[in-house]
Amino acid sequence: MGSDKQGQTSLSKLLVICFDTMDTFGKKAEQMPSINQVFQMVLGRFEYHVVEQAFKIYMESHTVMPKPADIVKIIEPPQETRK
Question: What is the model's pTM?
Answer without folding.
Answer: 0.89
